[in-house]
Design brief:
The chain is of the alpha+beta class. The chain folds into two domains: 5-103, no CATH class; 105-239, 3-Layer(aba) Sandwich (Aminopeptidase). 31% of the residues lie in helices and 30% in strands. It contains seven helices and 13 strands. Strands 3, 4, 5, 6, 7, 8, 9, 10, 11, 12 and 13 form an eleven-stranded mixed beta sheet that branches. A hairpin with a 2-residue loop joins β9 and β10 (178-180). It starts with a helix and ends with a strand.
């Protein structure tokens, strides 16, 4: 898959759909998202299309909606955000630029292999949730169940087990030829023992069976360990993005 602008647009749209905020609104083609705290993705405007004529008014509209909920306004900025000068407009209004994130992409192998210690299910259980939430801050942990409850139907939860205990987890959502890698977490006492790689293999095998041709994921560029894991698993950089946040 060549990383053309059309490909990047499809990647970003798939990422938005794979982590649905409980509350959304259309603002001239932008998707305003709110999840009562936590996840940046679910609490920022996805600016992947703009059909209006006045971006400044649309920014004001988005900000008013966040202020009404006691939140600061945030926008996720990618290389395919619209209008093209949105990042500059937000910077001029004093919106602070957040940490750099990356979108990574991998072609699914013809024979992904298997992961006998990884179980998959359409719904998560309390053990999966406990491993996932353990690595999140209080805001993200509180908001996560409401987002998980709204996932698209073509999804699968993955649990890496050691005996009866869940020691690692992951999630994938299929959107056409694209399948996500999300909610990757490993219990602190089980890290660097191959659990994450096993979950990645299981996700790849499931996605191949669902007809997907590529895996994608999004991560903080500063998370050196995670980026190394994904590069070692065959993922390469597709694009970068960041969040602009209104100063309180």
């Amino acid at each position: 898959m060549r990383t053309t602008r059309d490909t990047l647009r499809r990647l970003e749209r798939a990422a938005v759909a794979s982590w649905p905020a409980p509350e959304t609104a259309d603002i001239d083609g932008w998707l305003w998202r709110y999840a009562s705290g936590g996840s940046l993705r679910a609490n920022s405007v996805a600016a992947l299309a703009f059909t209006g004529s006045d971006p400044q008014r649309a920014i004001d509209d988005a900000a008013r909606r966040y202020h009404a909920r006691g939140a600061v306004a945030r926008f996720t900025l990618t290389c395919v955000s619209e209008p093209a000068d949105l990042d500059a407009r937000l910077a001029a209004r004093g919106y602070a630029r957040g940490e750099e994130h990356v979108t990574m992409l991998k072609r699914i192998a013809a024979s992904p292999g298997n992961s006998p210690n990884v179980a998959c299910a359409q719904a998560y259980d309390s053990h999966w949730l406990a491993v996932y939430l353990a690595g999140l801050g209080p805001g993200r942990a509180a908001a996560a169940p409401a987002i998980l409850a709204r996932l698209p139907p073509r999804r699968m939860f993955f649990a890496c087990r050691r005996g009866a205990a869940v020691i690692g987890c992951g999630l994938s959502v299929v959107d056409g030829e694209l399948a996500s890698v999300q909610c990757m977490a490993t219990r602190s006492d089980a890290r660097r023992q191959g659990c994450a790689r096993a979950v990645l293999r299981a996700i790849e095998a499931w996605a191949a069976g669902e007809g997907a041709t590529h895996l994608y994921l999004q991560a903080e560029l500063g998370n050196v360990g995670a980026i190394a894991l994904y590069r070692g698993g065959g993922f390469s950089l597709a694009s970068r993005y960041h969040v602009r946040s209104e100063r309180p």
